[in-house]
């Protein structure tokens, strides 16, 4: 079975997690964002923001986690899985922060190819900061733009998910997969 791998991406605070949780309630298998776990693990070790302290190490860990999710998705015995962010997100964030990274980052973006990408745009009314999200709303808008550029650069036509209730956004995604 060729499992379709569907990415849900977007800047911080755009509702990705809520949509992923709704898709799970509809019975779909979903992979959750790996960065929150990496951040929590580094905070347990006394590193408040690993991305700020060692952006390359943080991004290498993210890349490793997202590749692992891709491979696990490929092995699922289901017709479709959803992933909270994909490999090109790592490149987008590195570009946004102006960090250098080795060529392998772009190479793996071409190697691990998703079937469809949905991007949730910034939405000021739902944006909130939390322990793992330290970006301002304005930065979230800039990150969204970098994500759109990264996915386009790697050959994707990301489908923008309009504002709406979680149910409406979830239905929009499901209706654009047929």
From TrEMBL:
<dbReference type="GO" id="GO:0005524">
    <property type="term" value="F:ATP binding"/>
</dbReference>
<dbReference type="Pfam" id="PF13521">
    <property type="entry name" value="AAA_28"/>
</dbReference>
<feature type="domain" description="NadR/Ttd14 AAA">
    <location>
        <begin position="5"/>
        <end position="169"/>
    </location>
</feature>
<dbReference type="InterPro" id="IPR027417">
    <property type="entry name" value="P-loop_NTPase"/>
</dbReference>
<keyword id="KW-0067">ATP-binding</keyword>
<keyword id="KW-0547">Nucleotide-binding</keyword>
<dbReference type="InterPro" id="IPR038727">
    <property type="entry name" value="NadR/Ttd14_AAA_dom"/>
</dbReference>
<protein>
    <submittedName>
        <fullName>ATP-binding protein</fullName>
    </submittedName>
</protein>
């Amino acid at each position: 079975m060729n499992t379709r791998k569907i990415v849900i991406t977007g800047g911080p605070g755009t509702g990705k997690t809520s949509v992923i949780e709704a898709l799970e309630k509809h019975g779909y298998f979903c992979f959750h964002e790996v960065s929150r776990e990496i951040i929590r693990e580094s905070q347990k070790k006394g590193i408040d923001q690993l991305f700020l302290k060692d952006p390359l190490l943080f991004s290498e860990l993210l890349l490793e986690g997202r590749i692992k999710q891709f491979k696990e998705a490929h092995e699922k015995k289901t017709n479709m899985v959803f992933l909270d962010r994909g490999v090109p997100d790592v490149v987008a964030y590195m570009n946004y922060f102006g960090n250098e990274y080795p060529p392998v980052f772009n190479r793996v973006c071409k190697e691990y190819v998703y079937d469809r990408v949905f991007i949730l745009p910034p939405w000021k009314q739902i944006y909130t900061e939390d322990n793992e999200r330290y970006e301002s709303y304005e930065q979230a808008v800039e990150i969204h733009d970098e994500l759109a550029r990264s996915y386009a650069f790697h050959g994707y036509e990301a489908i923008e998910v309009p504002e709406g209730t979680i149910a409406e956004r979830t239905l929009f995604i499901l209706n654009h997969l047929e």
